[in-house]
Amino acid sequence: xxxxxxxxxAIVFLVVYFVYxxxxxxxxxxxxxxxxxxxxxxxxxxxxxxxxxxxxxxGQYDLAKSSLPLGEVKWRISFWSLLTLKPCxxxxxxPSSTTASGKACQSLAGTTYLxxxxxxxSVAPFSEYLAVELGGRGSVDVVTGELRFGSNNSxxxxxxxxxxxxxxxxxxxxxxxxxxxSYAATVKExxxxxxxxxxxxLEAPVNMEMAANWTQESGWHLxxxxxxxxxxxxxxxxxxxxxxxxxxxxxxxxxxx
Length: 257
Known about the structure:
The chain has 257 residues and is α+β, with helices and mostly antiparallel strands. The chain has helices at residues 2-25, 28-38, 79-83, 234-243, and strands spanning 42-49, 53-62, 67-77, 88-93, 99-106, 111-122, 134-149, 155-172, 177-189, 195-203, 206-215, 219-228, 244-248, 251-256.
């Protein structure tokens, strides 16, 4: 019985070792090209090394009207992950205004696994998606994540354990910058293959307890309470009246949409 098991195991090992020899000698440009095909918004230049272990002198991620500079990008593929037929890549970027690091794995079934993923960036480039210019820095820390991507950019969130933060938040009122404070959120998967987030203030002119839910079919839904503190800017106090129902003096229930 042992001999019968030994033969297929030896064949698998030889196949994986052959793949290792090929990948360890393939130029890093192949990896950069493959990444760009899978993520068209990602650009790497000045690439050197091998597919197995390489680096790019600079990288950037394109948004609709702006881009996020990534600085130097380094990566390394785990040999042992090939044995489980779930190739994993360890990467890091920087120094730059946007930095990222972590580990990503891809199964043959099409599931993407994330571990110890950390992203830190200015939020200013993301203002193009909103009706107001924003300031401050945002961060995303994913402890673990399991995502399944489909056609038309659809995604099913199988599992997720993440933290978000917005430090020194600001909004441009047109005449000046309004300080909004700092906020954070814990993010988990929900029962509809989407995400649920608990949003709260860290140090801000408001006390906030907000629940946010997202699914591919219905988008975002927000529900929670906001208490305006005495130090809150007058413009913020006026704005909350447009989106919230006053339950008590300076206390509002917010439901959107």
